[in-house]
Amino acid sequence: MNIFNYESHDVLGTVESVDTATVVIRVENDNRLRDLQINHLVAIQSSKIGQHLIGIVSKIVRKSAQTELDFEVSSDLSFNIIKVILIGTHFDNEGLKENVFRRTLSTVPTINAECYLIQGERLKKFMQAISSMPIEDGVVSLQIGNYSIDEDATAWLNGNKLFQRHAVIVGSTGSGKSWCVARILEQVSALKSADAILFDIHGEYAPLISDNFAHYKIAGPNDSEGDNILYLPYWLLTYEEMLSLMLDRSDSNAPNQAMMFSNAVIDGKIAFLNSIQRDDMAGSITLDSPVPYDLNTVIKFLENKDTEMVQGARGEKQGTYFGKLTRFVQRLSTKQLDKRLNFMFSNDPSLLQYDYMRKLCEKLMSPSSSKLGGVKIIDFSEVPSDVLPLIVSLIARLVFSVQQWTDTEKRHPIAIFCDEAHLYIPANTDRSIDNASLITFERISKEGRKYGIGLVVISQRPSEVNRTVLSQSNNFIAMRLTNIDDQTVVKRLLPDSLGDYADMLPILDIGEALIVGDASLLPSRIKITPPTLKPRSATIDFWDEWSKENVSVDINTAIESLRKQSK
């Protein structure tokens, strides 16, 4: 079926010059420009029969315009110019299929090849070629919304490529970013063996309630052990993570403090293994091994070293570490008593069980076929902001480590959605806690694909997100961005061949997105379909609220919640 069976009077123009994926079209007739707009699709004759090259219009120049061009044309400019970016090839027939679009350029157009505008009925048929491919290898792809260029055409994303090659979802506050995330999660959760984790920093996704969602909360100061309450005991931290939390590296005694702490921790882990008759493991564990140990015993050991007196030639004298561990012990004790860190330093005996890590990881990583809920939404709203990067990255590292050590044939893929990523995957760091978090996420972005971990980075400030993590992503869903720094970052991440395509970022409507990458058959402007389960909107209508005659404000309860650090 040849949907591009044009007549001679349909010709928009002819090819004037070709440069890799960029084509300049010469338009003699001024009237042909009337129906043309930026980002319209055009079809160009291919040197092969039954094929047409598809391009996006990126620039239109009338012959009367006195402008400096960024591409070469005849110096007199006695004709109209259209700059087109090639994005793929349309096949009339490919095997047993008709009307097929591929993101490949098997040929390049020849000089004087005819160019046609794709509009009207032809546009609908072409969009059908894109939107009628929801099934690949028997798996239904992800329906994200409808194309802005043809609202009757459904926009699909390749679910495999979206998570295999990581994704970035960005957009200013109020652009519809949360709805986009909820739309994707809804469809992920409907799969029979779905497995995904969402880091919900502000409790925004609490309304996403169904049998396919599991909601967990990092324990707050007043929470107690429960099925939906998560505790992350201190012994799950690696040595470097623990030091980033406890050690003041500017202290002149920091090396001594770190050394004595490491000795106490490894002794504590070995003592625990001996107490449960697992002596066989004692010789193979390291400081980073997730084995429980008693922090009170560690503190007592450090206090003894800090006040130790030893026998000298003329009687007792101060020990080697006398007075050098005082500040470290104080910091350690203060952290242990901090109610805000209840999720880490709780005295519940169940948190010191050898089996605790298995139970925790089963909650975090079990697919929906286990009846626990395939999409796990973890609420971090009561985690103090100063330790947030460490705690978020701890969960990510546990997932990565377990995936890494799982036999290949038994490894089940899992996706990690990082909401408000700029808070814990920052572009610039000046704290060791932030550095510890970055190490984890940079490793996942670089190596996660090999171990079946997909990363989805979600942020309203892409300019404040680590560049390495962003650059490892091959799929971009960019909603409206008004900040020039954020726009610049996204433009640099998009393929050079798309030229000025990203200039639409500040003018996108609410709920509209530019989608570019391996998962999208066509770089497109798409209207996101609203999710059935809507997240809690952070947008408050100031003027409407101020216009109300009577309102209820409960400041006293808010102050008490602040004092208790719990809502």
Based on the model shown, name its key terms.
567 residues; alpha/beta; 6-stranded antiparallel beta barrel; 23 strands; 23% strand
List the helices and strands and how they pair.
Layout: E1 11-19, E2 22-27, E3 41-45, E4 51-61, E5 80-94, E6 97-102, E7 114-117, H1 120-131, E8 135-136, E9 139-140, E10 142-147, E11 150-157, H2 159-164, E12 167-170, H3 177-189, E13 196-200, E14 213-218, E15 229-230, H4 239-246, H5 254-275, H6 295-307, E16 309-312, E17 315-318, H7 326-337, H8 342-345, H9 356-365, E18 375-379, H10 388-404, E19 414-418, H11 432-447, E20 453-459, H12 467-471, E21 475-478, H13 484-493, E22 512-517, E23 524-528, H14 542-546, H15 555-564
Parallel strand pairs: 12-20, 12-21, 13-18, 13-19, 14-15, 14-18, 19-20
Antiparallel strand pairs: 1-2, 1-7, 2-5, 3-4, 3-7, 4-5, 5-6, 8-9, 10-11, 10-23, 16-17, 21-22, 22-23
Helix pairs in contact: 5-6, 6-7, 10-11
Gist?
The chain is α/β, with parallel strands linked by helices and about 575 residues long. It has helices at about 120-130, 160-165, 175-190, 240-245, 255-275, 295-305, 325-335, 340-345, 355-365, 390-405, 430-445, 465-470, 485-495, 540-545, 555-565; strands at about 10-20, 20-25, 40-45, 50-60, 80-95, 95-100, 115, 135, 140, 140-145, 150-155, 165-170, 195-200, 215-220, 230, 310, 315-320, 375-380, 415-420, 455-460, 475-480, 510-515, 525-530.
